[in-house]
Amino acid sequence: MDNTVEERFVELETKIAYMDDFISKLQDEVVSQQKIIEVLRAENKILSGKIQDLSENIYIPNRKPPHY
Question: CA-CA distances (angstroms) from residue 24 to 29, 35, 56?
Fold first, then answer.
């Protein structure tokens, strides 16, 4: 019986070690993706501002109303 209990503990410790490694890798990936998201948000804000500026300054002759 002692051998079986010891084997179970070793198996559980092994699973916990793999789970710790997996969680650590997952956390690193989440941090990396968050940094990418922040960069993309900043770029999106800049591009939105440029599009807004361009749309305000552009003149299109004979433009149809939006309901057409």
Answer: 9, 17, 48
